[in-house]
Amino acid sequence: MTDLDLLLGKAKEFHGDMCAGIVLGTRMTIAGMRELGMNPQEKNRDLIVYVEIDRCIADAIQAITGCSLGHRTLKYKPYGKFAATYVDLKNGTAVRVAVVEKKRTEKTGKDAMQDAVRILLETPESELLRIRRVNLVIPNGDMPGMPKHRARCSRCNEMIVDSKEIAHEGNVLCGNCAGVPYYTDLA
What mean pLDDT do residues 174-180 have? Predict the structure, then answer.
């Protein structure tokens, strides 16, 4: 069994099934970690991954790298792109891996997914992924570990950690109170 087979199995088990996104996320992670000189079969404590989409790819990346939101090593950037940036905290190097796949299946339904998986497994990496070294400055508030900064919203009085507060007209506000809500109160 190859490394690809083992890692695909790990990602499939975490996600629940095999789909095109699991294949892409697995191949992206293998490439990204290889470029950083990291082994995807080992725990890499110095790895942070910024993933740019909240789809199946993210599950494959999390399953293989062990990075997670709770450990503050998986970061989500809502760009809607099939891409991720892998960062080695030890030496500060970063590599962004993006999907450039052009082959599409003409089938629909279950056959389409099986066909897409096959195509993505057979496509050479050079035709599937764009790999670039990039510069990335990780804000202090994004670093793993205990919160380095705390503030309290002057409007709702809730705690804000990791430098996520917004200064507005001399007040410290959370994102919701500053007018960037993802929810609204019913009462």
Answer: 87
Task: Report the relative pairing of strands 93-99 and 129-134 from DSSP bridges.
Answer: antiparallel
Domain limits, CATH 3.30.1330.130, in the chain: 3-134
**How many angstroms from the chain centroid is the CA of residue 89?**
16
Contacts (Cβ under 8 Å, ≥6 apart) of 114: none
Report pLDDT for 26: 97
Q: What number does CATH give the domain 3-134?
A: 3.30.1330.130
Q: Distance between CA atoms of 145 and 24, rounded to whole angstroms? A: 30
Helix residue ranges per DSSP H, the chain = 3-15, 20-35, 56-65, 109-122, 125-128
- Secondary structure (DSSP) of 40-79: TTS--TTEEEEES--SHHHHHHHHHH---TTTT-EEE---
User: Which pTM does this prediction carry?
Assistant: 0.87
Candidates 128, 125, 51, 63; CA nearest to 87 is 51
pLDDT at residue 140 in the model: 85
In the predicted structure, residue 88 carries a pLDDT above the cut 70: yes
55: which residues sit within 8 A by CB, 6+ positions away?
21
